[in-house]
Amino acid sequence: MEQYIIRGGNPLVGEVEIGGAKNAALAILAAAIMTDETVRIDNLPDVRDINVLLEAIERIGATVERVDRHTVTINGATIGDISVDYEYIKKIRASYYLLGALLGKYKKAEVPLPGGCNIGSRPIDQHLKGFRALGASVDILHGAIVARANELTGNHIFLDMVSVGATINIMMAASMAKGRTIIENAAREPHVVDVANFLNSMGANIKGAGTDVIRIKGVDKLHASDYSIVPDMIEAGTYMMAAAATKGDILLKNVIPKHLEATTAKLEEIGCEVEEFDDTIRVIASRRLRRTHVKTLPYPGFPTDMQPQMAVVLALAEGTSIVTESIFENRFKYADELARMGADVKVEGNTAIIDGVDRLTGARVSAPDLRAGAALVIAGLAADGITTVDDIMYIQRGYEDFEGKLRGLGADIDRVFSEKEIQKFKLRIG
């Protein structure tokens, strides 16, 4: 079983290069099958979720070629199957983007109900509502979503709740529907904008992405494109939190500072120095940080995907902080693991009350999901002594070469596969 083993106590110092946004890339890869011409996508993160989705796309018949670690070409002309295998869906929730892509292009799709991290209920009713509004019949049959239409017709769709997945899925299907579609109460996240930009680069006609009203004029077909994925604001935010927790000094390269405003504002509020440049950000934490209150909200609010990492920083801050999770109900599963390291965290419903402690101590902990796993690694880096993190396959779903990038910042961290390797690590660090 793979684990991370960490000796904490070193401030993280240096430069780190941020990769492409996983959440944008997953939707863009799905959208790439909507043309019969070859699409080239670069700045792809080399993470497990991306590789699983590429396998799923290949399995339905598309031609997929890895040009290099971060570049792929996809041609959807050879697709012979509109039914996606359950094996892929159970591994990554974002395979459901193939619904909107296949429905838009072929007017039919069959995709099993999604899996992914168990961080709470993530219903797909808004996706299905959108497909039905475009004229598709949608049924749940034998554990799969089956959507069909003679043709898709544009419509006015008001989402009952802000949903990134539904916004993107409806946007993909509507881009090849007859007439005009308006999506109101649309998600505004940077990766929604990136997917819209990608579809437009293939000949779609989408306006308003990044606002809460998106207007789409359907087109008959899409064409080839050469596109680069936007930088990952969650990967960037995770390293910003690592600097804060370890009293470090990190320069993050290849970022869009505007995407990080909510994270930057909170770090400055608790006492970090944050310097912004065109495509870099520097985070310096030279003293003990202060308490604050955090509430997760849809973009441009504080991201739910940054909440566990922020909680680790606040576990070491002075005073009592309150973290309110308004997006997912199971996002505090890391609290018990953090308590094993000496943190004082009490969870009541969708709120965590965190009394800052002077120090954390190393322990054996288990990653309950992707972002919580990254947060526990940060806790290990800040803690006294040795921490082992189990179930790191969750972390590998969304962070490319996590241990390598952290080592480049001065962290004592290894990925190990056996008890023998753990002992070697302990002997090496003395």
Automatic annotation (TrEMBL):
UniProt family annotation: Belongs to the EPSP synthase family. MurA subfamily.
List of residues that carry 2-(S-cysteinyl)pyruvic acid O-phosphothioketal: 117
GO terms for MF: UDP-N-acetylglucosamine 1-carboxyvinyltransferase activity
Active site (catalytic residues): 117 (proton donor)
Task performed by this protein: Cell wall formation. Adds enolpyruvyl to UDP-N-acetylglucosamine.
CDD domains with a match to the protein in the record: UdpNAET
Sorted UniProt keywords: Cell cycle, Cell division, Cell shape, Cell wall biogenesis/degradation, Cytoplasm, Peptidoglycan synthesis, Pyruvate, Transferase
Residues bound to phosphoenolpyruvate: 22-23
Cell location: Cytoplasm
Every Enolpyruvate transferase domain range: 7-406
EC number: 2.5.1.7
Leader sequence residues: none
Record organism: Ruminococcus gauvreauii
Protein name: UDP-N-acetylglucosamine 1-carboxyvinyltransferase
Reaction it catalyzes: phosphoenolpyruvate + UDP-N-acetyl-alpha-D-glucosamine = UDP-N-acetyl-3-O-(1-carboxyvinyl)-alpha-D-glucosamine + phosphate
Record-listed UDP-N-acetyl-alpha-D-glucosamine binding positions: 93, 122-126, 305, 327
Source organism, top-level taxon: Bacteria
Pathway assigned in UniProt: Cell wall biogenesis; peptidoglycan biosynthesis
